[in-house]
Amino acid sequence: MSTPRSARRPLIAGNWKMNLDHVAAIRLVQDLALRLRGFDHKMVDISIHPPFTDLRTVEGIIGADRLPIQLGAQHCSSHEDGAFTGEISLAMLSRLSVASVIVGHSERRQFFSMTDSDVAATARAVLTHDLTPIICVGETGEERESGVTHEVLVRQVTAALGGVDRGVEERIVIAYEPIWAIGTGVAATAEDAQTACQAIRALIASDRGEASERVRVLYGGSAKPENAEELMGMPDVDGLLVGGASLGAESFAAIIAATATCYGQTAGKS
Ligand code: 13P
Fold it and tell me: 38 lies in a domain?
């Protein structure tokens, strides 16, 4: 018997990318806190992933106001420490109460030459430090046009699982982010997102069996208040990795609210 979808708590994660300095971060988090007042926090997990230079400030606000928001990073080194100029270690992130790290975002793969094996090594390191890796996968527009989306997902998911020991699968999150949908305003349709997220879960199942039912699979790429409810209505879409729309408290809070509504309505469905 498969685990009901309602057993997987939805996760709405905001990836700020290289936006908002620590002063702007204070404004955004405080505004978000106001908008989340009275919100049933048991319904939806929320994480925000500011730039490294904002982490200390945002940690302070979350801690002082006991906000129901987890702090996340956008990247980390797979190495413990040493001569890696410009990199940030997991030990450093842990000291700042960082709970999760985005691993292998397409922008890291594209602009910083991160390979599938780097993604696996980084996911392994994140898990070793008891943090949650949010592992990103997804095809380019060209790959989609040539009909090789599934092959790309097979390659990326299989490689990423190489960094995940048996028995800890439920601690990982996979984010399906088709590159052609990132920052373009054109999201995948809810059906296409479902097809890809379902395929990712099936890939995990083929290697790890029913543990796949406990892995959260997110969709990312032009997610916004207008499409959040439809995307979150899909049975294999367990959350959203939000870029642009996480830079405004109003739009990010609206996505969280849409998710809560959707789960309120579909809770108990499998
Ligand atoms: P957008 O929501 O801006 O398309 O970005 C998606 C993304 O890359 C999140 O990691």
Answer: yes
Residue 168 lies in a domain: yes
How many residues make up the chain in this entry?
270
Active site residues: 105, 177
Mean pLDDT for 235-247 is: 98
What pLDDT is stored for residue 56 in this prediction?
98
Helix ranges (H only) for the chain are 22-35, 55-64, 90-95, 106-111, 116-128, 141-145, 149-161, 190-208, 225-232, 249-266
Tens of pLDDT, residues 103-141: 999 999 999 999 999 999 999 999 999 999 999 999 999
- How many structural domains does the chain have? 1
Task: Report residue 20 as tokens.
Answer: 């908002």
Does ligand 1 lie within 6 Å of residue 223's CB atom?
A: yes
- Indicate if ligand 1 lies below 6 Å from the C-beta of 194: no
CATH number at 198 reads 3.20.20.70
Residue whose structure tokens are 């995940």? 164
Asked, for residue 2, whether it belongs to a domain, the answer is no
Q: Which of 74, 182, 240 to mutate to test the pocket of ligand 1 (most atoms within 8 A of CB)?
A: 182
Which ligand 1 atom sits nearest the alpha carbon of residue 187?
4
Q: How many angstroms separate the alpha carbon of residue 82 from the centre of ligand 1?
A: 31
Domain membership of residue 193 as a residue range: 10-262
Residues in contact with 266: Cβ distance below 8 Å, sequence separation at least 6, in sequence order:
5, 6, 233
Residue 175 domain flag: yes
For residue 102, give the ligand 1 atom closest to its CA.
10
